[in-house]
Design brief:
alpha/beta; about 35% helix
Length: about 250
């Protein structure tokens, strides 16, 4: 199944064509992705869902350049990342991709502000002070910048991770179960922040989740099964997502 948003190419942040991923060989051969064709509209929040083993995490890792695809092409901001060498791929991820993981991935010895600035510091680049101030204000972190991770709640730590992901104005932010370690109330706050980043900052977000409530914050939900895209929901609700997952045997 081909999933293509009704937008022009200039409105597409990420695009994959004929994407495949194969693990093992012979009797252990597994097709994790089977000729996936998908486009993600710029400035939209998309959730990817499916049963365990459906290929949703593999798809995200390939799209983000964290894992090599076995075949096909992936474009981020017009760049075919499948043709990049390791150094160029590392630079691309640093400049064009943001990540928000379940485990926060903050450096415990650094302050919140230093954690936010870390990607640019590693790249030897200066940050845009006005943009940093905007992000910090939007995420409610102004009074927490001098705190280290152990001095922050789980929700505050994830806000720092979101701020870090947004700082470089990336083409896309990938979220891997970003609320998996948070309680429901804090998770809702983080999801609201992700959604507002698309609507107020024009950020493109692609999130993998198993949670129907989390998916309901997205503009679009893509459904996967057996390494293929098998459905799409627009303006999802908890009820519509739950029903769709039920149809996939989840």
């Amino acid at each position: 199944m081909t999933i293509t948003a009704p937008h022009t190419s200039t409105d597409i942040a990420v695009h994959a064509t004929n994407l495949s991923k194969i693990y093992g060989a012979g009797t252990t051969r597994v097709e994790a992705l089977r000729g996936v064709e998908v486009s993600f509209a710029r400035g939209k929040f998309t959730a990817i869902m499916g049963p365990s083993g459906s290929g949703k995490s593999t798809l995200m890792h390939c799209l983000a350049g964290l894992d090599d695809a076995s075949g096909g092409s992936i474009y981020i901001g017009g760049t075919d990342i499948s043709k990049l060498n390791d150094d160029a791929l590392t630079k691309m991820r640093r400049e064009k991709v943001g990540f928000v993981f379940q485990s926060f991935n903050l450096v415990p010895t650094l302050t919140a502000e230093a954690n936010i600035l870390l990607p640019l510091a590693l790249a030897g680049k200066k940050h845009d002070a006005a943009w940093l101030e905007t992000i910090v204000a939007t995420l409610g972190l102004k009074d927490r910048l001098t705190h280290k991770p152990h001095e922050l709640s789980g929700g505050q730590q994830q806000r720092v991770a979101v701020a870090r992901a947004l700082l470089t104005r990336p083409e896309v932010v990938f979220g891997d179960e970003p609320t998996g370690n948070l309680d429901s109330r804090t998770g809702a706050e983080v999801l609201s922040l992700l959604r507002s980043s698309t609507r107020e900052m024009g950020q493109t977000i692609i999130m993998v989740t198993h949670d129907a409530i989390a998916a309901s914050y997205a503009d679009t939900v893509l459904l996967m099964k057996d390494g293929e895209l098998v459905g799409q929901l627009e303006d999802p609700t908890v009820e519509s997502v739950t029903q769709a997952l039920s149809g996939l045997g989840v």
